[in-house]
Amino acid sequence: MLVDFSLEDTVALTRHLLFAAEDHATSHSILRGLLCLVIVLAWTVWRCWKFTVYPWLHPDEPKELPYFIPTHGASFFKDSNGLLERARRYFASTGTTPFALTAFGHTFYVVTHPKDSAAVYRNTESLSFDEFVQALMRFNGNDEWTIKNVHQPLPATTKAGFANPEGLGMINLTQRMHMHQLHPGEKMAVFQLQIRDWLNRKLTLDVLASTDSTDTGQSSVDSVELSLYQWTSDWFVRLGQHLYFGDVLERVDPEYTDNFVVFDEVIWKMLYQYPSLLCRDMTVPRDRMIASMKAYLQLHPDERRGQAAWLINSLEDEFRGIGVDDNNLAILFFHLYFAINTNSRKTSFWVLTHMMRNPSYIAAFRSETAPAFDGDDLVDMAYIQDADKCPTVDAIWLETLRVAGWAASVRLVARDVVIGGKVLRAGNRIMVPHRLLHFDPAFAGDEPTTWRPGRWLDSDAGRKMHKSPCWHPFGGGRTVCSGRFLAKGMVMAFVSTILRRFDIEAVGNPPMPQPDVGRPVLGIISVMEGQDYRVKVTRRKEASV
Ligand code: HEM
After folding, report:
1. In this structure, are 96 and 245 located in the same domain?
2. Is the domain of 171 the same as that of 190?
3. pLDDT one-digit tens code per residue, 524-536
4. Which atom, in ligand 1's list, is nearest to the CA of 434?
């Protein structure tokens, strides 16, 4: 009886539970369905508002590239230029420019018309670069006092040191001082001679054989095998460091240049301001470099100032003059260090790689630069940089900048402003993506993605390309790269001395290395990881042409 009752009861209870569970499941799926409906409705309302109603209410503002989930962050992260190109094509039929897109919680106005890009570079009142500088300073450890005071206008009085009659703040005065060192003139001439002598001394097979850290023991008296990207990176950073700090920084920290190359390959994590914990591969070399820079600054001035460039000593005086301490000065000099060194190492890699795949340009390069040499030694730096005397060399330089240049100029819209007939709202960012302009067939002609230096020489239009408002390999306006003349001098001296002294060829038959389009850079694109080019450098039989 007891058993019967229990069984029935159990069955009834089970049934009840099953019904209850079914009820529960039913109400769950109803809830889930309702939730989905609410989400779909909310999404539809959001999308309608964002891409139909708002643009209709505000026809004077740039139209925004539609998206399904509320940001373009993922596509931007994977290939920012690919996303920008897609957006340009999307708006091409309506001629909409500037247009807008949202990524990482920021709205970017994108300028693709050369006339508008000129307006962006001109407008220093409403469009500000300072926000970028301040964020970088803060991210790398500058304190708030320093950030505030280096931006503060200074008294416009006559003072010792670098003249500042307009009373510019230190950040703006620094730009003037860069130009004083790096634009053609007396101080730049010192650098040019140092570059020439350093390369003449160092570019020998013996030194090359001892350079390659991946040396496979394949060096012989007449040839050396090297990884090209590793080679150009190592040498250009050493050369840049030598110009600015003599041999002293290397004595303080023999691994400074190595740390820089490691840091520079992940510099995009700094540009995206990753949380420190997630990017120790960037912060560890960065912090070492900043600590070593501080150790350099704490050496007695007699031990270091004699070898440093005018710019380094003068900047030190000016920054100390307004009260900046060693910690903060070390970070400011570290910023200077990566501006000097991040681009030339990559440019020389791309120049050599493209030329090896197009050997007729090697012959032309050799023959045009021959008059600048005495035997195997480069003597005339000006000659190899002169576009009239070396037109093909110049075209190779320009074409490599065009194809490998990946930077964009970005400014904060500090107050509402009209560009290209559209109202840009304060608080958003405006971007001039150089690559889009450089790859526009209206500027570059046929096959814009192909490396073809002839496009700069073959026609009247081609010969005028470098004067086009589309052409911005070094940015523009107040922040245009002050190192552009030095960069050309360094790269052309390096390549011409190599070609004068050696034959250079790829080992095996590797494909063209791919640019790493996913990583933002401050100028020239990096090579995809693992795609370095192994090259064989052989002593040339005859040094003449
Ligand atoms: C091929 C090599 C180079 C390329 C493609 C390049 C490109 C650039 C670009 C795109 C900018 C930003 C401009 C803007 O936002 O408007 C810049 C800024 C700068 N570059 Fe270069 N650069 C190169 C080599 C150099 C070298 C060798 C130096 C120094 C020796 C240098 C020093 C600077 C400095 C100091 C700035 C900041 C300008 C300022 O705000 O005052 N660059 N560069």
Report:
1. no
2. yes
3. 999 998 888 999 9
4. 10
**Domain co-membership, 452 together with 522:** no
- Which domain-ending residue is among 33, 57, 81? 57
How many whole angstroms from 419 Cα to the centroid of ligand 1?
25
Q: Tell whether 383 and 459 lie within a shared domain.
A: no
The residues near 274 (Cβ < 8 Å, ≥ 6 apart) are 282
Which residues sit with their C-beta closer than 6 Å to ligand 1? 175, 178, 182, 339-340, 343-344, 347, 405, 407, 409, 473-476, 479-483, 486-487, 523-524
CA 342 to ligand 1 center in whole angstroms: 9
For residues 287-319, b (16+ Cβ closer than 10 Å) or e, as one string? bbbbebbbebbeeeeeebeebbbbbbebbbebb
User: Residue 457 belongs to what domain range?
Assistant: 439-470
Instruction: Write down the pLDDT at residue 3.
Output: 41
**Domains in the chain: how many in total?**
4
Residues 38, 156 within the same domain? no
ipTM of the complex: 0.97
Span 440-465, mean pLDDT? Answer: 95
Question: What confidence tens digit (pLDDT) does each residue in 475-523 have?
Answer: 988 889 999 999 999 999 999 999 999 999 999 989 999 998 877 788 9
Helix (H) or strand (E) holding 140, with range, is: none
Ligand 1 atom 19, closest CA: 481
